[in-house]
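Hi R.,

Here's the input for the nicotinamide-adenine-dinucleotide complex you asked about:
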Amino acid sequence: MEKQTPDNSRRDFIKTGLFAAGSFFIVPRHVLGKGFKAPSDKLNLASIGAGGKGFGDISNAWNNGAENVVALCDVDTNQAARAIKKFPNAKVFSDFRVMFEQMKGDIDAVTISTPDHVHGIAAMTAMQAGKHVYVQKPLTHNIYETRQLTEAARKYKLVTQMGNQGASNPGQQQMIEWFNKGLIGTVDTVYVWTNRPVWPQGIPVPTGKPELPPSMSKENWDLFIGPADYVDYHPLYHPFKWRGWWNFGTGALGDMGCHLIDPPFRVLELGYPTEVECSVGQVFTKDWQPEFIPEGCPPSSHVQLKFPASKKNKKEIKMIWSDGGIRPFHPDLIPADESIGEEGSANGVMMIGSKGIMTCGTYGLVPKVYLNKGGKLEMPKDYKTKNKNETLPEYGHQTSWVEAIKDGFGNSKHKALTSSFDYSGPLTETVLMGNLAIRSYGLRTAAGNGFKYDGRKKLLWDGTNMKITNFDDANQFVNRNYREGWKLI
Ligand SMILES: NC(=O)c1ccc[n+]([C@@H]2O[C@H](COP(=O)([O-])OP(=O)(O)OC[C@H]3O[C@@H](n4cnc5c(N)ncnc54)[C@H](O)[C@@H]3O)[C@@H](O)[C@H]2O)c1
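And here is the predicted structure with nicotinamide-adenine-dinucleotide in place:
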């Protein structure tokens, strides 16, 4: 699908105020009084996936009425009920393709907060219609889709932001400043860990055919499936639990990777990894015979990604990810009774450098440095942040995106965004590399009385060309087959 006739008139106006003089429906600002915002100064926002996290995303972008919410798209009226009540003037849709068709010129920007398998196709449809997008993390379901969105943002000159709100947390700015001062020296190892999955995962594929909830028609279940392989409705998929199934979700890495890998990726200015290796937890319901559930993400995994030296860090880096509750061991430099990162948190980040260790919790919270020569640094309470929206919900991550749209593509507020696709694209590809390895680890062929697992090895990655160079079967996970009727581009 090529970009259709873009309706840029409203957007251009928002950006430049071109119609301000001589346009009959504009009332001069001085007539309206100080502080009054003419309706035409406001962005017209739409939400795709208005329940769950989507409610917060569209509410934060709306910013207590600073913008308009003109359309809500969701496949389940029960999930979307809170948003429908909060934005009674918004038109309600269940198919985002119909929404863009019917409201072509009436939407400026869209928040996308569906399950992961719909992010790519919904965002591409929006961008091809000329809409700015805020897309939840991980940016997409697979590496290929992420690359396409990253390129589309530049091609169509759209202002984008991924929903890893910790990117706007001043804690990350503090970490960059500490690293740039050389406090921890050169980093060679990074640990990142999470307690996810915290939903059913590593379990057998659900059977039976439960009734659809009354809030969801058969047609809307079909829309939920979107580009994925068709399966019957089951409460183990929708809502929320889709996370544990490769058809829809991206497992523990997809859920927390974009939050937790973000600080080291940003601080060390990493690019595409060059190698990935993993092992995954097994489940036994019979002696000696592990369950084999290729449809489901594993109950735990341990992944190592290798990055070449970067401009900022003159040494190769190993990044070690663990999930399912497996954590790294306490380094000697951190007092035994002290939590690593955020007190009591089951998620964290630790960067081991030649002169010290830097740690933080989720979203870059409570950053700290432990120096080899002795001493510890914490973020001062009166830390001076560049983020003017710091006190807004989610550090103003959505508001900054809205302001950048109004400022215009390529202008200073756009450049200051902390997770536009130029940054969050490569970050997401890195996160999804881990999933590629995990899925490859499960590939097996019959051999004798058992199986041969050819993908259980170190995989070499050519990031520019999106290709595993030493095990071709793994390349099937770079992209996915789309269900008939659904196409990315
Ligand atoms: N940044 C964060 O802190 C954070 C937190 C939670 C979730 N998320 C992300 O938000 C996204 C949604 O997660 P969730 O927990 O809200 O899931 P959820 O299942 O609770 O909600 C998803 C919503 O999307 C709707 N939906 C599903 N398919 C749709 C389609 N094709 N078109 C329109 N609407 C559709 C559902 O009906 C539901 O209202 C995920 O990508 C997740 O990773 C981010």
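One thing worth noting: Confidence is low (pLDDT under 50) at residues 1-9, 11-35.

Cheers,
M.
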